[in-house]
């Protein structure tokens, strides 16, 4: 049985823990590997290696750091198929979606290679008599990242490349449910030239998370995952004096206006709701149908029925398995709650049968109409292939409905009206807005900007914002004198530099 190692100071080492967790193929229940629940001493060793490496890494020229990530993006492209196969085996998503997972992370690696233009300070000459002021964007030190199961390639690649490119060192804790593709990506990062100690990897559960939050040598933590754990990480790490950014739970809504292109809107809704089995923090889980668009429910159900549910390796699969047996049980119980709460079950995916994969964690596309706040299927993030339909009489009513939800990760509108789209983007209180785009995750030139209960911390995980997160701005005010006597021999006790 393969045992996933830790990476400490450039060496892959076997954990000395007595606690191991199985990594399971969610389509077959096959045990693929075992991952260690690392000891506190091993976490401390990883942090110590990162701290020691920081002394030299922070002085490494920007161009040298950037070239490492140019090489890494090339290696990722060369190994794309193999990486996707590993990701699908341990996480369950389709091979095509696995490649998409990797590619969206690859975009951030490419962005990290452009760090020279992103980490530039500001300069102002002669702000007072002979005085210049300029800023330096300097690395913080040891940073850490805690990543979720649903994007085991993309989200680690959101974190360590930008942190390291900025001159920091890094300790990464991948999800214990699917750490294998993350390990492969880290192997490629070492091959690309990341020096020993600059990138370290530990595995584990709450004990490891708490040690990362508490460790005095860690200066910043980036987290993506559930609201419960994210809130804990933010509070605990903030109390320990760290910078923290936490991207957390969501309940993403789409407004469908009756003037929308029906075929396009239905296709986009179906794909965004059920892709990756709904296990995306940006999945569209609520559609607010306005006016005559409420008549489109039968056609939406028909679209969902056409999706193939099977293992991610099978040709033509649209919806793969959920990550675990417990995830399947939770989703099925929430569907039962939806029925009990009075929502109309338009399409039931609980009894889906997948030939050849009888042990898989499959739930088929499920659609509820007549959903209202107070129902469990609306109030909770289901994280499964379940779409809730809500009726509204007007755009204003739909906007008010969305703004009343505490989450603010992403939202979208389907319309052919520029005026309606502009009103929506102005009045909606959600961080990321799509106009005829169902999953509006921005490219790395911009930053991921979830808001309200979906995010803690004021800076996003990539783009220009993350450079601010991973650096400390130092302001220098300088005056140089040509003549020692130019001060006039007088002592100045005022605050003015003039």
From TrEMBL:
<dbReference type="GO" id="GO:0006210">
    <property type="term" value="P:thymine catabolic process"/>
</dbReference>
<dbReference type="InterPro" id="IPR016163">
    <property type="entry name" value="Ald_DH_C"/>
</dbReference>
<dbReference type="GO" id="GO:0006574">
    <property type="term" value="P:L-valine catabolic process"/>
</dbReference>
<dbReference type="InterPro" id="IPR016161">
    <property type="entry name" value="Ald_DH/histidinol_DH"/>
</dbReference>
<dbReference type="InterPro" id="IPR010061">
    <property type="entry name" value="MeMal-semiAld_DH"/>
</dbReference>
<dbReference type="GO" id="GO:0004491">
    <property type="term" value="F:methylmalonate-semialdehyde dehydrogenase (acylating, NAD) activity"/>
</dbReference>
<dbReference type="Pfam" id="PF00171">
    <property type="entry name" value="Aldedh"/>
</dbReference>
<protein>
    <recommendedName>
        <fullName>methylmalonate-semialdehyde dehydrogenase (CoA acylating)</fullName>
        <ecNumber>1.2.1.27</ecNumber>
    </recommendedName>
</protein>
<dbReference type="InterPro" id="IPR016160">
    <property type="entry name" value="Ald_DH_CS_CYS"/>
</dbReference>
<dbReference type="InterPro" id="IPR015590">
    <property type="entry name" value="Aldehyde_DH_dom"/>
</dbReference>
<comment type="similarity">
    <text>Belongs to the aldehyde dehydrogenase family.</text>
</comment>
<dbReference type="InterPro" id="IPR016162">
    <property type="entry name" value="Ald_DH_N"/>
</dbReference>
<keyword id="KW-0520">NAD</keyword>
<keyword id="KW-0560">Oxidoreductase</keyword>
<feature type="domain" description="Aldehyde dehydrogenase">
    <location>
        <begin position="12"/>
        <end position="476"/>
    </location>
</feature>
């Amino acid at each position: 049985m393969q045992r996933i190692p830790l990476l400490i100071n450039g060496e892959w080492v076997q954990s000395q823990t007595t606690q191991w967790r199985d990594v399971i193929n969610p389509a077959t229940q096959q045990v693929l590997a075992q991952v260690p629940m690392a000891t506190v001493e091993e976490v401390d060793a990883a942090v110590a290696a990162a701290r020691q490496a920081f002394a030299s890494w922070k002085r490494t020229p920007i161009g040298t750091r950037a070239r490492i990530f140019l090489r890494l993006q090339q290696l990722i492209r060369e190994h794309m198929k193999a990486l996707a196969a590993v990701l699908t085996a341990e996480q369950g998503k389709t091979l095509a979606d696995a490649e998409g997972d990797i590619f969206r992370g690859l975009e951030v690696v490419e962005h990290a290679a452009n760090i020279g233009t992103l980490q530039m300070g500001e300069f102002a000459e002669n702000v007072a008599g002979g005085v210049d002021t300029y800023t330096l964007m300097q690395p913080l030190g040891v940073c850490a990242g805690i990543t979720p199961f649903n994007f085991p390639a993309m989200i680690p690649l959101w974190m360590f490349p930008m942190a390291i490119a900025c001159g920091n060192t890094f300790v990464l804790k991948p999800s214990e449910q699917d750490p294998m593709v993350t390990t492969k990506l880290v192997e490629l990062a070492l091959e690309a030239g990341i020096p020993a100690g600059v990138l370290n990897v530990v595995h584990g559960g709450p004990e490891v998370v708490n040690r990362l939050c508490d460790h005095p040598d860690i200066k910043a933590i980036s987290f993506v995952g559930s609201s419960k754990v994210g809130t804990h990480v933010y509070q605990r790490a903030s109390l320990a004096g760290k910078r923290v950014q936490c991207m957390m739970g969501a309940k993403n809504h789409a407004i469908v206006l009756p003037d929308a292109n029906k075929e396009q809107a239905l296709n986009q809704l179906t794909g965004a709701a059920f892709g990756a089995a709904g296990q995306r923090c940006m999945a569209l889980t609520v559609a607010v149908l306005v006016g005559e668009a409420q008549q489109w429910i039968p056609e939406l159900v028909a679209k969902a029925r056409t999706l193939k549910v099977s293992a991610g390796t099978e040709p033509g699969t649209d919806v793969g398995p959920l990550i675990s047996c417990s995830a399947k049980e939770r989703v099925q119980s929430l569907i039962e709650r939806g029925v009990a709460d009075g929502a109309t079950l338009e399409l039931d995916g609980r009894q889906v049968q997948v030939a050849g994969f009888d042990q898989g964690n499959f739930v088929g596309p499920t659609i509820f109409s007549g959903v209202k706040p107070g129902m469990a299927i609306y109030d909770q993030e289901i994280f499964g292939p379940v779409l809730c339909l809500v009726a509204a009489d007007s755009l204003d009513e739909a906007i008010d409905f969305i703004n009343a939800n505490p989450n603010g990760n992403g939202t979208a509108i389907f319309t052919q009206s520029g005026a309606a789209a502009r009103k929506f983007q102005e009045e909606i209180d959600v961080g990321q807005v799509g106009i005829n785009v169902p999953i509006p995750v921005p490219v790395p030139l911009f930053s991921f900007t979830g808001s309200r209960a979906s995010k803690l911390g004021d800076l996003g995980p990539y783009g220009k914002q993350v450079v601010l997160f991973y650096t400390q701005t130092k302001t220098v005010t300088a005056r140089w004198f040509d003549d020692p006597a130019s001060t006039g021999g007088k002592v100045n006790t005022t605050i003015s530099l003039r």
